[in-house]
Amino acid sequence: MRPEDLVRDHTVYACVMGSRAFGLATEDSDTDRRGVFVAPTELFWGFGKPPTHVDGPGPEQFGWELERFCELALRGNPNVLECLHSPLVEYADDTGRELLALREAFLSRQVYVTFTRYALGQRRKLEADVRTHGAPRWKHAMHLLRLLHSARDLLRTGRLSIDVGAEREGLLAVKRGEVSWVEVESRMARLAAEAEEASRRTPLPERPDGRRVADFLYRVRHASARRAPEAPPAVRAPGS
Question: Phi and psi for 36 in degrees, rounded to 5?
Answer without folding.
Answer: -130, 130
